[in-house]
Amino acid sequence: MIGRQDIPETHIVRKGAGLTTHVMPTAREALQKRVDEEDKRLHALARMEAASEWLFSDAALIVEGATEQYLLPSVYEAICRVRPEEDSLAIIGPGGASNIPGTLAVMRELGIEACALVDIDFAINDAVKSNLLDEDDEHVQECLWQLAKMAEHDHDICIGDNGRPRKDKENPDGKRPAAVLREWSAQAGASSVTSALHEKLKVHKIWLWTGGDIEYHLGITGPKDVTSWAPFRAQLSERSYDEVIFDSRTVEELIKWIRGHVVTGSREANDLAN
Predict the structure, then answer these.
(1) Which of 114, 164, 169, 175 is the most buried (most CB within 10 A)?
(2) pTM of the full structure
(3) Which helix (H) or strand (E) segment is 208 a member of?
């Protein structure tokens, strides 16, 4: 039994080819190497302490929020008939989108196959800040241009000096940035842009929700809390998933992608070691 306070200093020992073994760095060491900002290291470390299942997993799915952590295990099982833990897959929430690139790097430093799942705003914000996409990327710029056009006709949308939607202190009832991005993603002119950004981030093993967020694709319209999640999960256990999930085709593709690029990769590594 590993105590929560011991997790940051715990070494993972992995099998290598033949009879060799490799002692991986601790989570604290990996964070110091891969994450520059101290506050992000502290937040990531706290989350990793709280989600100790990654210590005993060969693969990890990094997610933004509580909706994913609550519902994805049930969605995963409904689609592929095995639970994530049966695939040695841990689902980890590092405490927000800004911590995802660093957590991905840390997992890989620890020898754990990892991928991430992000909302649409990640593409124009954190992906650029983390140098996964360039600020002058044609599809990032096209997105910003279309958002600016939306704001010209909707005074509830506030665009900041950096070209991104932001909260407007003078209009507290204005649209939140995430809501603006989701509204944009539903427009006809956005589909080619979201698809292109999706493909570019997949290169980094990051799946972008082209419809805005997980709630859109699952078909959840209520509050982002257990009052909406629990009934949805109950339906998944009682009915076929394609009757419950609004965009079942995209969600199927996501689960297949996770199993094909992360779970399979960890199994192949283990097979080579045995």
Answers:
(1) 114
(2) 0.83
(3) strand 206-208
